[in-house]
Write a structure and sequence with these properties.
By secondary structure, the chain is mainly beta. The protein has a single domain, classed as 5 Propeller (Tachylectin-2, Chain A). The protein has helices at residues 4-23, 288-309; strands spanning 27-31, 45-50, 56-61, 67-72, 78-82, 87-91, 98-100, 118-122, 128-133, 138-143, 149-155, 161-169, 172-179, 185-189, 196-201, 210-215, 221-226, 237-242, 249-255. The protein has a four-stranded antiparallel sheet, with no helix packed on it. Strands 8-9-10-11 form a four-stranded antiparallel sheet, with no helix packed on it.
Length: 310
């Protein structure tokens, strides 16, 4: 006969595996700045997106009208680039509220009549943000020490780069960009010159106008693409997983319409000149609830066997 303790242990271990698997699911932040279906109360809101299945949880209004770039800085603070006001803003992940750095809109100090359509990422120098403009086909740098004032680094080889992401390795930082319009491909970006060099076409992705790009903690590259203006009917945003060696995209899920930004986690700047995990291996980790449950079960089993031995 199977002992009670063995059955209990099997049930608990199964539960712990489920908990660890759930805690490892990738989540990202995005703003529905281009939605056709959102109401006046839900447009331009910050959302938490389950990248595995597309489930979107609304957090709250950002307070800006066209946030197209999102990224965490190395300290884990969420920033956005607002195209309507040419502003770099800090965003509260608890309520979604944003405020312009220095308390001033147009803090990037760019030509207010130009339409930029920003992508955003951060270098490991905490005070340097990199922005792309798909309309202007430029790469820019914003200095947080100078109230976010931006300057143009260079032209992106006439490629409309709509999203940016920083991959930190032991060899340094690698900036990737996502092309839009007639250039739906993955690119490597030279932050010294602005030049965009093609990695390869996305292949499987549906047509889109703008997109967000971000790496997760295991080194996988994700994108959310905005398809709200592609056809007369409203199309959901696509969630993509992209191969950084070939550019090929795998469609993972669909989510709410009008998302053109993505931020997942802060760049792992400690890994420069250090050791980083193999990005092809995902190691599940228990969350606090899982660890607490494990402790309770171990004490319960210990008490049960002590009573049995008396």
């Amino acid at each position: 006969m199977i002992r009670y303790g063995t059955v209990l242990l099997a049930i608990v271990m199964t539960g712990l595996l489920l908990i660890s698997s759930a805690s490892a699911q990738p989540f990202g932040y995005s703003v529905n700045s281009d939605s056709r279906t959102a109401s006046e109360d839900t447009i331009d809101n910050l959302y938490l997106i389950n990248l595995a299945n597309g489930e979107a949880t609304r957090i709250g209004a950002v307070g800006f009208l066209d946030v197209e770039g999102l990224a965490f800085n190395p300290d884990g603070v969420l920033f956005g680039a607002d195209d309507e006001s040419n502003s770099l803003i800090e965003i509260n992940t608890q309520d979604g509220g944003g405020f312009a750095l220095g308390g001033q809109t147009n803090n990037l100090q760019l030509n207010p009549t130009d339409l930029f359509d920003f992508g955003l990422t951060f270098l490991c120098d905490n005070n340097q943000a990199i922005l792309s403009s798909d309309n202007m086909q430029q790469l820019l740098m914003s200095d947080l020490n100078d109230n976010a004032r931006a300057h143009v680094i260079g032209n992106t080889s006439n490629v409309p780069i709509t999203g940016l992401a920083n991959r930190v390795t032991t060899d340094g930082e690698q900036i990737f960009g996502l092309g839009s319009g007639n250039a739906p491909s993955l690119y490597r970006i030279d932050v010294e010159t602005g030049v965009a060099s093609p990695v390869g076409p996305l292949q499987n992705a549906a047509p889109y106008t703008d997109a967000g790009l971000a790496f997760d903690e295991t080194g996988r590259l994700w994108a959310i693409t905005d398809r709200s203006s592609i056809a007369s009917e409203t199309l959901p945003s696509q969630i993509l997983l992209i191969d950084i060696d070939t550019g090929s995209a795998t469609v993972v899920a669909e989510t709410i319409d009008g998302l053109e930004s993505l931020a997942i986690t802060a760049p792992d700047c400690d890994s420069i000149n250090g050791t980083i995990a193999d990005p092809t291996v995902e190691v599940p980790a228990l969350n606090r609830f899982g660890l607490l449950l494990l402790m309770v079960v171990l004490f319960t089993l210990a008490g049960y066997h002590l009573r049995r031995s008396r």
